[in-house]
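Journal club prep — side note

Before the paper discussion, L.F. wants everyone to see what a predicted structure for a comparable chain looks like in token form. Sequence:
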Amino acid sequence: MNDYRKTILFVVVFVCIVLGGLYLIGAKEAEFNVATTVRGKASDVFPFLTDPAKRLNWCEGLKSCKLLDSESVDSGSKYECTVNKDGKDYPVVESVKLIDQDKVFTVYRELSGIASTRIFELSEVNNQTTVSYRYLEKRDVLASLTFFLNRRNLEPSMFSEMEKLKTVVEANSAQASLDTANR
């Protein structure tokens, strides 16, 4: 076999190996979990998960958010949002997949080759609510190339979001208590 054919064969095999590897990486899903405990009832926390204006106070990168075609949030409701990612604003539609008042809220979105599902589960004991946040994602091949860098950024951002959620809920509950006491 002459050098020209060996080179072409090498290039074809190399490209097949690279594409096969990218396919396998892209076919995997990732899951991340964080939790926080908030002083307050689940009914105090839940509106901060579902109300578009309240979500702006704790969701990282969320620049705007409004409900589409409805006044209340139900399964099937959609949010129209603007999300800032890597310094750029992107329009995105989020779909509510499951809502069980004061217990579970699940929302789905696709952005930049990443399909994500965010699941929030609430459990209340003695006027304290534990919020468990599970993030599931599936990436296309191009998004998979940057996955390992994004993973390092994602987990701290999830912890930061949960701390912001805790802070705004507890501040809101404290303000409500003051307002009630002053009446």
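L.F.'s comment for the group: Residues 12 and 135 are 38 Å apart (CA to CA). Keep this in mind when we get to the figures.
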